[in-house]
Amino acid sequence: xxxxxxxxxxxxxxxxxxxxxxxxxxxxxxxxxxxxxxxxxxxxxxxxxxxxxxxxxxxxxxxxxxxxxxxxxxxxxxxxxxxxxxxxxxxxxxxxxxxxxxxxxxxxxxxxxxxxxxxxxxxxxxxxxxxxxxxxxxxxxxxxxxxxxxxxxxxxxxxxxxxxxxxxxxxxxxxxxxxxxxxxxxxxxxxxxxxxxxxxxxxxxxxxxxxxxxxxxxxxxxxxxxxxxxxxxxxxxxxxxxxxxxxxxxxxxxxxxxxxxxxxxxxxxxxxxxxxxxxxxxxxxxxxxxxxxxxxxxxxxxxxxxxxxxxxxxxx
Length: 316
Fold this sequence. Notes:
CATH class of the largest domain: Alpha Beta
CATH architecture of the largest domain: 3-Layer(aba) Sandwich
Low-confidence stretches: none
Distance between the termini: 58 Å
Strand order of the largest sheet: 5-2-1-6-7-8-9
């Protein structure tokens, strides 16, 4: 499909890999992306060299103009945006926009969010849904307004979460679902077939939120039931990673399985020294399978045990 197949002039705003699937789908569908707004390059790696965002790299490859404002309220940036004369801003995995930005286009601004709004508003919707043991999640497109993640819903699609899926696995599937839903949303907007609904008209017994996750949020509480610990661990896998203290070092745990055994001791460490490493919970032992000790690479438990024989009796 050629660039002239659609009349909408779009500015795309996003930063990480999750957003690349969306902008790629938009371009492939023949929509005209006038420019991309993404985060400034950040120092990374041992040499602390400036590293471009995934969205910037995509835009450069496709020869799309790139804007990287430090501050979204900067007058020179706002002037640049206005000169692009966009009909619509499309936002995927970016940052909170001031009204001076999101209200600029004649059709407003839309956002793709990784949950079935109004559930899991916030910065970490995939993590929080998996951590809470949800079996269903999805994506939502909506119009931006003042309060974050509260605008009128345009389109939603649900998807399952497997009982042993990690956040990383859900993320990768959702990335593709979100891209297709976003293109469908643009088709609806362009053909004037949007019947958006207010989020407060969607009834739920309880609304769950998805605040940003910090390091202190990732410490495992072994006094809880196995299923709670399992959901917590897979919900933080692979990034930022749930952790415990093993001796003097931090042990990140990316995945394991539940062993329901009576008379377990929360926090107790058990191992046969070859291929099992278990930690007690309130109703059994969690058998670790995918771990990383501070200063070491990520590895399976068998490889770990070959090089780490003196296992402390408890985790901290």
